[in-house]
């Protein structure tokens, strides 16, 4: 991917993602992580190469595969309540009103916001707004979900709590996730694989399977093996910058 003016963003990226994986993209600022995410999601057209999602070009794939995107900012409509923000994708899809109400209610319960359904964004904390944004992405029951640093602006405690909730949702729903983050511990806690990009133009310098199988309890973050693995990822990231 080369932007106007000849600025190269990505070069020689070769990545396969299997169904049900949770892949985190990490790398230095400006290395093309978000650009890659948007290309795979079909929001940006690359200037070269080929991208296939379920065997089709990304925009074509969206006709047969349910896809959702969670941005860094919650991007909620300020004049709509939480439940009406979550309902928006279903309204656009012309889902019947009774089905829409049921799915919105169920999804808000899933993210722990059933009691705040009628609150507007200004009445919610930052973490709660991100939960609404996540609920809006999940209400369509996606098969693939793209997340572009959704927790980057949150305090560490809120971020860790939302990491745990997101991981539990992924276990229950089994969607495929592509997640951009600068936080290496977050990537290690959430992912099945971590893909490390070099400085611009971004290319893959390491593709690392995460060794923590099974349920990941919050206290995993305090274990020596976890700290050691995060350190290894940091070493590979620094090595990729040299």
Folded structure, characterized:
By secondary structure, the protein is of the alpha/beta class. The chain has two domains: 2-65 and 143-241, P-loop containing nucleotide triphosphate hydrolases (Rossmann fold), CATH 3.40.50.300; 76-141, no CATH class. The chain has eight helices and eight strands; from the N terminus they run E-E-E-H-H-E-H-H-H-E-H-E-H-E-E-H. The chain has helices at 33-41, 58-61, 82-92, 97-110, 126-138, 156-173, 184-190, 224-241, and strands at residues 2-3, 7-8, 22-26, 67-70, 144-148, 176-180, 193-197, 204-209. The protein has a six-stranded mixed sheet, with helices on both faces. It is globular and about 55 Å long.
List the helices and strands and how they pair.
Elements: E1 2-3, E2 7-8, E3 22-26, H1 33-41, H2 58-61, E4 67-70, H3 82-92, H4 97-110, H5 126-138, E5 144-148, H6 156-173, E6 176-180, H7 184-190, E7 193-197, E8 204-209, H8 224-241
Parallel strand pairs: 3-6, 3-7, 4-5, 5-6
Antiparallel strand pairs: 1-2, 7-8
Helix pairs in contact: 3-4, 3-5, 4-5, 7-8
């Amino acid at each position: 991917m080369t932007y106007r003016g000849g600025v190269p963003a990505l070069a020689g990226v070769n990545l396969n993602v299997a169904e049900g994986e949770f892949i985190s993209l990490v790398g230095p600022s400006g290395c093309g992580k978000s650009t890659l995410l948007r290309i795979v999601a079909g929001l940006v057209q690359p200037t070269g190469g080929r991208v296939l999602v379920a065997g089709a070009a990304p925009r074509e794939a969206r006709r047969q595969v349910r896809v959702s995107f969670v941005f860094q900012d919650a991007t909620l409509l300020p004049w709509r309540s939480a439940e009406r923000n979550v309902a928006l994708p279903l309204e656009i899809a012309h889902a019947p009103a009774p089905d829409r109400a049921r799915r919105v209610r169920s999804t808000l319960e899933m993210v722990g916001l059933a009691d705040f359904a009628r609150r507007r964004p200004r009445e919610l904390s930052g973490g709660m707004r991100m939960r609404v944004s996540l609920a809006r992405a999940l209400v369509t029951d996606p098969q693939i979900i793209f997340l572009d640093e959704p927790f980057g602006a949150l305090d560490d405690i809120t971020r860790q709590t939302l990491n745990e909730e997101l991981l539990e949702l992924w276990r229950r729903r089994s969607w495929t996730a592509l997640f951009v983050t600068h936080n290496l511990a977050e990537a290690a806690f959430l992912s099945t694989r971590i893909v490390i990009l070099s400085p611009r133009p971004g290319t893959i310098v390491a593709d690392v399977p995460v060794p923590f199988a099974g349920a990941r309890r919050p206290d995993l973050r305090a274990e020596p093996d976890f700290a050691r693995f995060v350190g290894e990822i940091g070493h590979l990231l620094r090595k990729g910058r040299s």
